[in-house]
Sequence to fold (521 residues):
Amino acid sequence: MTDGAATTVRETDAAAEASVSSATPPEEERLPRRAPWTLQRKLIVTVVGITSFIMVLVAVATSAILGTVLEDGLARDLRTQLNRTASMVHGYVVAGLTAEEILAEQPLPPGTLLVVETPPQPPTAAYVDDDTSVVALTEKQIEELIASIPEEGPLVVTVDGVGTFRVEGEQLGPNSIIVVGLSRDDVAATIGRMLTTIGLLTAGGLLLLAVATAWTIRRGLAPLRAVADTAARVSTLRLDQGDVSIAERVPVREADPRTEVGRVGEALNTLLDHVDESLTARQRNEERMRAFVADASHELRTPLASIRGYSELSLKALDRGQGAATLETTEASLERIQAQSLRMTSLVEDLLLLARLDEGQELVYGTVDLTRLAIDEVGDVTPTGPDHEWVLEVGDEPVLIAGDAGRLHQVAANLLANARTHTPAGTTVTVSVVRDGDDAVLRVHDDGPGIDPALQGELFERFSRGDRSRARQTGGTGLGLSIVRAIVDAHGGGIRVTSAPGDTTFEVRLPARPADPVAPA
Fold:
């Protein structure tokens, strides 16, 4: 193997090891992460922790202040006791009595320590215990006591087996010194009792605080848990197909908008309401789309079947070759094919018009006189409906608006054709044009039998018909009124219908100056 090949192999091995090491996560990354704390636990720990810290600081500060006050009081008492003792035992010290003998002759309060030093005699010391007995200190205790007296600061000494004293000395004569001390047991006991009381109260208060905080936070977060539970239940619903309805809601008591968390619940309920309405609208649109496809298929299937049938008839006639009869049959078939083609073309053009109107296209704005438009349309429909009575009610002044003249003519023509087709002979149809504020209003009224209440809700939907049999004698494709609504909506207006037996009115309301239309793409 050459050096180049060996180098290549080593590089390949190194790359493989690097890829393996990068693919294998380190031991720390493979370990499961610790579960995060809940908001309730965080709040409880934070509140209790901060309160504990504050209470400990208060306890320490209180103990320090109380200790200082007690020590100052002890120092004052010691100074008073020293002055009193010096005057009382001065003669005993000069006489050379020991501290034990002096305390036996001149009793002092319990807890008082007396040290007498009269060179060349060794120092003596004694103290009065709680039962007023005088106890002399040993030489070792005296040595430790004298050695432990600090040069600066508070004169506090500890006598092994006896206790801690605050001491202060005074010189009596040229060679005599006495030291008087008062026991610090009462100070230490007071501070100890205070710390114990503070500790117990702090522990009890913290326990009560933790329980109260947990209860308050749990009650406060109950609406948030209700929101989470509701969202979890909604997440398990099938929302992708079928007639879906979301009945889950955050309970009203947990969605109080006066609280922050309650506003979250109210917002979720509002969101679910909107989603539920959207799903209902989606289902309704799907049903309409299926009905639309079925209706469009039916409308297209009939002319296509006619075209196919007449085409086959013409071909068979040509195959038989029967001269004049063949020519006559072929001519009739072509006429029927042309008629069905025109019918299919009209349907496709209507569908295309609706699609373009939905996109904001197909409008060419200009000045339109609704009065003249109504006069023209009534004049056009009168010959086609001689068995109806046509009445025109317009003012002397023209009603001018900005709109697409061709499409508005189509609106009036469709409304009049609808009245002519769906009312019996002898019906009076009244067309009126008025101005109402900034709007122009076109009304078509008839005294026919009225519209079925079950049909009024879907009257302007595509392929909506009063005659479910689809007979050509009682209506067209079912797109007339949907085209009317689409054109009126594109002009920024509105259309509504009120119907009762003998009183049916279609009212078209158009703004005199609508917003600028969307420019075609």
